[in-house]
Specification:
The chain is mainly α and 168 residues long. Helices cover 58% and strands 0% of the residues. It has 6 helices and no strands.
């Protein structure tokens, strides 16, 4: 098989094509195609993105606030916002979409604030392993100081300790 591209001299190229292609490397056989190409157009910001924007907004509107924190959903929201801004810039946008985006963004902000507050509280908590280590140390200390029989009685009393009346 030959490349077959027309040459300046009026003939055709006789070089073998690039593997998996129909042309040699000099006549475009090595050029990247599809999404690998540097000039690939994905259409995400196209002025015809109306139905796609509606789908994204409907999907994000039905997502729970906790799921909205997921980076994939945040990216979808930002892309929807960019699409809407581009649409409003070119005077082809609908303000109802912008209202929906605003509501989803407010939910996202609230969910992020709640998530950050939870993370701060988790950092304040003493890990259970540290508490267990402390109790083991206390048991050893009591055993060394007052003997194992007295320590056993104290440990049994400690097991009945409750933080509140609602604890089991």
């Amino acid at each position: 098989m030959k490349c077959g591209a027309k040459t300046r001299g009026g003939g055709t190229c006789q070089k073998p094509p690039v593997k998996g292609r129909t042309r040699c490397r000099l006549h475009g056989g090595a050029t990247l195609k599809g999404s690998e190409s540097a000039t690939y157009k994905h259409g995400l910001y196209s002025k015809y993105a109306g139905p796609e924007l509606q789908e994204v907004l409907a999907e994000l509107d039905s997502v729970s606030s906790d799921e909205l924190i997921n980076p994939d959903n945040e990216i979808k929201l930002m892309q929807a916002l960019i699409l809407k801004c581009k649409g409003l810039q070119s005077a082809t946008g609908d303000l109802r979409d912008l209202d929906t985006i605003s509501k989803v963004i407010e939910r996202l902000i609230t969910a992020k604030q709640r998530s950050q507050a939870i993370m701060i509280e988790q950092q304040r908590l003493v890990p259970a392993s540290d508490i267990e280590r402390f109790l083991d140390w206390m048991e050893k200390l009591l055993t060394d100081r007052i003997g194992s029989d007295e320590t056993y009685l104290i440990i049994e009393q400690l097991k009945t300790f409750k933080l509140s009346d609602n604890a089991n």
